[in-house]
Amino acid sequence: MLKKRLMSAVAMLLIFSVIVLTACGESAPGSSKEGKGTGQGNPASGKKYKIATVVKLTGVAWFDRMEEGVKEFGQTTGHETFMQGPQKADAALQVQIIEDLIAQKVDAITVVPFSAEALEPVLKKARDKGIVVITHEADGMANTDFNIEAFDNLEYGAFLMDNLAKAMGETGEYMTTVGSLTTKSHMQWEEGAYKRQLEKYPNMKAVARQLETSDDQKIASEKLRETLKAYPNLKGFQGASGNDAAGAALAVEESGLIGKIHVVGTSVPSVSQKYLESGAMSMIGFWDPAEAAKAMNTLAVKVLEGKSGEIKDGYNLGVPGYEKLKVVDGKYLYGSAWVGVTKDNVKDYDF
């Protein structure tokens, strides 16, 4: 009799343990593991993906900052994330890197193209192999699952022009530079700026437009010096590449033209602070490359998890500046992440 009672007690304990363990394994009502319409979070499936980010070039402050975002995303989510890029801005070198990543069978490639057109064939190859492709600064790119921009590029260009016009007193001759004529975002910023000038600032005149710098600070400096020789009354400079404005500001300083030539462009505070404080540069516009990296990687995971359909107008990607996306033609995404910085607020940023 005692033996039967013991066996019954053991059986009851086993049943109770199973019930408790099952209950613990379930989510409480209303406590989803992934917030609706947001978030980078750990993959619900528990699967870890290998995601490569390919940039225009390495060893410059802009992409150093982007790499911080790539690494932070991996640390936060558990995915294997890393960044690669050529040591100089060269589309052929980017193609070679992507070919190598295809051979490695990575799950996704996020890329900032130096030349969108040059990368179309290799990115098509990647997608044909089942690799997810996310692009940035490549508005209108065909062979991508999503292209994400920090903002509407034409509006950003107009914003830069408004600041250049303010510095120039809305009058005088100016020039513009781009990293490459095949870098779509740079061309759109320049186009947006030029259109704004024609519409709003009739007393300003573009004497040299879309001069290529290959994302090189030294070349940007040389372009300003050359243009100044041809147009000695030059009064303004707007640069698209992350190195253009700094190169122009250096030329302004060395030529003793602070206060006479006004420089604006896209840059980061760590590069431009000294020029803003000296007066050689009037303002910079930018978005945080680290947050852009997180946005790209978050999108890659969404696609890999079969959740592309969630990406609609107003979608919150869970990344600062990308909380309310604008979606055009299904796969072209726009955030609202630009920042304007002058000598008055440059110390508010630590990158």
Automatic annotation (TrEMBL):
One of its GO terms (cellular component) is outer membrane-bounded periplasmic space. This is Autoinducer 2 ABC transporter substrate-binding protein. Residues 51-307 form the Periplasmic binding protein domain. Residues 1-23 form the signal peptide. SUPFAM superfamilies: Periplasmic binding protein-like I. It is found in: Cell envelope. Belongs to the bacterial solute-binding protein 2 family. InterPro entries: Bact_Solute-Bind_Prot2, Peripla_BP_I, SBP_2_dom. It comes from the Bacteria. Transmembrane segments: none annotated. Keywords: Signal. GO terms for molecular function: carbohydrate binding. It comes from Paenibacillus azoreducens.
